[in-house]
Fold:
Amino acid sequence: MTIRTERTQGILSITIDRPEARNALSLEMGRELCAIWEEFRDNADLRVAVLSGAGSKSFCAGADLKEVGSYYASMTPLERREHGEREPGLGGITRNLDPGKPIIAAINGYCLAGGLEIALACDIRLAVPDAKFGLPEVTWGLIPGAGGTQRLPRAVPVAVAMEMLLSGQSIDADRALAIGLINRIVPAEDLVEEAMTLAARIAANGPIAVRAARAAAREGAHLSLSEGLRLEQFYAEPARQSEDVREGLKAFSEKRNPNFKGI
Structure:
């Protein structure tokens, strides 16, 4: 088994379990992850996901280059383009498949190439002190083709992103924190626990509101302010009309924890 999952109180924990290969993803692992993300999207009982890599050396090394490289090499350029337009990307979430719910990346070591592209597709990133981040594809004669050229400049200052993209050099966790690539640095022994604690805090909130806030922030990030404000109201209205908001306000006045049901 190369992908492990566990479900606990609305949290889906996903572990890429191939530490002997730095958690590189085979084609079969990619297909398995796609099915897992689809279940996460469609299961109303699951509210937050935590994605991590097994072992202490690597979060994910991206695609298994020998297997995946051979697979794509067998296609014509047109076939590769058509495949990219319709199929979910690396790890299931870099292209064409958005679960619509928060994903926390717990980064326990090297986070390079496709591994960083997967982490960039997550909403929140926690990392251990010795984590390393980079997109070395240009050193192989390639470009990051699973969202790296698009998501990295949206996540960090453009000049910093360009340096990483064009040089292929990696950065350490302190630098990643300073540029806003990760949310915080966590001791290795506390990484999963801290990610799960944060996931539990998110899962305890109104699920309609959480999904709406996420969608509004993601989709509005590159709109003008006026367009973004209109988008915000579009997503705010379903939350205002939900039973959850009535429960939340009632719980606030009664000084108790709300019991949100996602309706």
About this structure: The chain has a mean pLDDT of 91. The radius of gyration is 19 Å. The chain has two domains: 3-203, 207-253.
